[in-house]
Amino acid sequence: MLSFKKSKLIISSLLFFLFSCGYQPLINVNKPNESLFNSGKFEIFSPENDIGFQIRENLLTDFGFPKNPKYKIMLKNSLERRKSIVTNKNDITRYNLILNTIFNLIEINNNKIKLTKTFETETSFSASTNITGFKAQVAKVNAEKRLAYDIAEKIRIEILLLEKDLLN
To answer: What whole-number distance in Å separates Cα of residue 160 and Cα of residue 167?
Structure first.
């Protein structure tokens, strides 16, 4: 009985601190105000390679095509491939793919940089010597898609954190 009272006290005090600290969720679905999603306020960069194209496609699904863009999203990507593990019989090789991205959010009116961030994400894929090169290429492409999704997700979060400043 005593532990129930203590746990009730702890939970109620945690809830009190949570609601008194000014916590607000990033996406408030109850608010009918203007949203950044599918608003056409972002001109998204022209991709230079396949992974840039994948990132752009992921961002377009959330932010939509530019209708009246106020901001430009620019990315500089560098993909690094490292051989990490080779089996004893030398038949399977595991590769690590590391994507480094420099993200710039630029205000179109005055060409001023609103935000600059550097992101790094990593994934792996395996390639076997006894399979065709096609299967190894498909594994590599799928790994690049995972990296692109992760970078796009990080960019979405950064833009959501700046949402109040961007809507003004």
So the answer is: 11
Q: Is residue 27 part of a domain?
A: no
CB atoms within 10 A of CB 125: 19
Residue 58: which H helix or E strand, with range?
helix 50-63
CATH code: domain of residue 94: 3.30.160.150
What strand order describes the sheet that includes 92-107? 42-44, 71-86, 92-107, 112-128
Euclidean distance between CA atoms 122 and 40, whole angstroms: 30
Token pair, residue 18, equals 């949570």
> How far apart are alpha carbons 94 and 63 in whole angstroms?
35
Half-sphere exposure of 117 (CA within 13 A, CB side): 16
User: Of the candidates 111, 118, 112, 123, which has an alpha carbon nearest to the alpha carbon of residue 148?
Assistant: 123
* 28-87 tens-digit pLDDT: 555 555 566 777 788 988 888 899 999 999 999 888 888 888 889 999 999 998 877 666
Give the range of the structural domain holding residue 50, as residue numbers without chain letter: 34-167
pTM for this entry: 0.74
